[in-house]
Design goal:
The protein is of the alpha/beta class. Among the domains are: 80 residues, no CATH class; 177 residues, Vaccinia Virus protein VP39 (Rossmann fold, 3-Layer(aba) Sandwich), CATH 3.40.50. The strands form three sheets. Strands 7-6-5-8-9-11-10 form a seven-stranded mixed sheet. A two-stranded antiparallel sheet has the order 1-4. Helix 9 links the parallel strand 8 and strand 9. The longest helix has 14 residues. It is extended and about 110 Å long. GO terms for molecular function: S-adenosylmethionine-dependent methyltransferase activity.
């Protein structure tokens, strides 16, 4: 216990309502309350008039010391009308204030003086960010200016496949073969080793690659010539369909054409076809260029660099299959629709997916284009991966309407 002449000030906070300070006198067994009823519009139960009456005397409560302090009035859940202010004091007591009365406190809400101030949201936690990485070096440090470019075609392709397209230009010279060589006009002749400039592959020449698929020109020459199954569509049969529909074929686009065999076959028939191709572990683009067709280095997730309505034919090879996300594939089909002219053809050559997904997922995506079905053939995929995953092939020839 403190000395008897010492006063203690206590603040009470009840249900978010903070009351004004109470001054307790510990010498007598009475508690003198100052300015609480005046602030909150309350009065003693034995009185029915203003808080201080006309005589200006303060009411006192006989309470045990430090027990049962006055509890402020609780707020109801429903909004209530503001309590009218007390009538003004007479002129003889207007300037009579209690000696220890604190200055009046202003509430944040003028309509309800007892409403607590609004609760502010907690301050957001400060995130600890990792230290910034070092910026990439300038391009002139990666390769000397006005000199040979480094052999980084595999790096450029990996950036393109990850969405970094188009790549920035550089001020360096691309490497060329040491000796000029005359290229054959026949796109199915043997690929000359004198045009080889790559160094990142295991095989350092085309003769080393002849045993692999898509590099043996004797095997490639027989493709797209005959129909061995219902899934095949020969070039001759396709041109007959286009001729009967009075739709000339002059310009084409081959998506995922590998070494450019389809473009080479169409070149012999005086039809220009541009091939989008990626190397993916083998020099497919170099082989297509050596055969005299245009290899277009463009990813499928970006807008094709072809003008609107410029192509009479768009063929999708093995590069377009179920490994592409459905949303990306839908955007790809709409971009192919942009490239095709009215009356042009969309050729899906052996598109493979799971059998349950053909009618449920990919069929509706293709049907959104509203194209005419000229050919729609489905067959089982008989390789080990197809048998394991219950996959099927789809070969479809669709014609774009002239007016949509």
């Amino acid at each position: 216990m403190r000395n008897s002449g010492e006063r203690k000030t206590q603040q009470i906070v009840h249900l978010g309502v903070r009351s004004t300070p109470f001054t307790w006198n510990l010498e007598p067994k009475t508690a003198t309350k100052t300015n609480f009823f005046e602030e909150n519009g309350l009065h003693n139960g034995s009185q029915h008039g203003p808080p201080y009456g006309h005589g200006g005397h303060q009411p006192s409560l006989s309470l045990p010391p430090l027990l049962h302090p006055p509890v402020p009035r609780l707020l109801s859940a429903a909004p209530s009308s503001p309590r009218p202010p007390p009538p003004p004091a007479p002129h003889n007591t207007r300037h009579h204030q209690p000696p220890h009365a604190p200055p009046p406190q202003h509430s944040h809400n003028p309509h309800n003086p007892l409403r607590p101030p609004p609760v502010l949201p907690p301050r957001p936690r400060r995130l600890r960010l990792p230290p910034p990485r070092r910026p990439p070096p300038p391009l002139h440090e990666l390769h000397p200016l006005l000199s040979l470019c480094p052999p980084d075609s595999d790096l450029a392709e990996s950036l393109i496949l990850r969405g970094c397209h188009p790549l920035p230009r550089r001020r360096c010279f691309s490497p060329t073969p040491p000796k000029p060589s005359s290229l054959s006009s026949n796109p199915f002749s043997l690929l000359p080793d004198s045009t080889v400039i790559w160094s990142q592959y295991t095989c350092k020449s085309f003769s080393c690659l002849n045993s692999q698929s898509r590099f043996d020109m004797k095997v490639e020459k027989s493709k797209f010539i005959t129909n061995k199954s219902n899934l095949d569509l020969s070039i001759t049969q396709f041109l007959e369909i286009a001729r009967s529909a009075k739709s000339p074929i002059r310009l084409g686009l081959d998506i995922g054409g590998g070494t450019g065999t389809f473009a080479a076959q169409m070149k012999l028939l005086n039809v220009t076809v541009v091939t989008t191709t990626m190397n993916l572990g083998a020099p497919h683009s170099e082989a297509a260029a050596a055969r005299g067709v245009v290899p277009l280095h463009a990813p499928l997730q970006q807008r094709l660099p072809v003008f609107d309505g410029a192509a009479d034919l768009v063929r999708c090879g093995h590069a377009v299959n179920r490994w592409i996300p459905v949303a990306v594939m839908e955007f790809l089909f709409y971009d192919l629709d942009r490239v095709l002219r009215g009356g042009g053809y969309l050729w899906l050559d052996r598109f493979f997916c799971k059998e349950v997904d053909l009618d449920r997922v990919y069929g509706p995506v293709i049907g959104k284009l509203g194209y005419k079905r000229v050919k729609w053939a489905v067959g089982n995929k008989t390789d080990p991966s197809g048998v394991k995953n219950a996959e099927v092939y789809l070969t479809a020839l669709l014609q774009k309407p002239v007016a949509k």
